Amino acid sequence: MDEDESYGDIQKVFDDIPDNFNILEEQIDIDEQFRYFELSKKLREKNKAVNELPENCDELFLPETSEERKKELLVSLALVPDVKAYRMIENYLKNADKQVRNWAVLAFQESRMLLQSTLLDEKQVFISTGLGGKGKKLRYYVVFISSSPDMMLESSHQKLLKDELIFALKKKDGEFESIDFSQGFASSLLLLPLKANLKDIFSEIIDECNQYGNFLAEDVILTNVKILTRSEIIDFINSGDNKKPPAESD
Fold this sequence. Notes:
2 domains; five-stranded antiparallel β-sheet; two-stranded parallel ribbon; alpha+beta; Alpha-Beta Plaits
């Protein structure tokens, strides 16, 4: 399968998502999310019909309760379609232990969706990525690669890229958050609607910028999984992995 076909498949998945979706706004490591949903799946399979609060659920608020026990209670509560369970998670989240807070965030999101599904009799779609999002928008980390990898972009080119990025995002109902310039590349955090055509947006930005000196490579590195380190970016550039389609996760 070539690059265009792969990207087309990713875009089709997003296009087929119904309008009643929920995006996890917090930035939570993908591996930690995986552990949460693995336990959720395990408990759901163990208890086919979960309609009551778990036993001794007040242990969640006790300082002597272990971290693992609190995680299990949060996941268990999130499986109960009851406002009481939702409120317990909400109250815990207000003063959650640092080591357990991400699990409380995930449990709160799952509990809220379960209540919505029950009350509205309509299945909800939950989308989670490592970088999170805002409202109906996903957060992306994009790296623009300099055509001169051993040099910083000139100040005029830095300003042009930032201005073009902000302009293009506004047209597509996106949001600019930050941009940083390093030797050989520029990296930016931004928000875009779930169904935005990423390939067209970034191709347009690069084409506009390159009218004034061809200072950007045609490809970008794009992910919603995590913020990349400099060494990871350099490895992508050197290996040619940046030519692969955008990395997505849900």
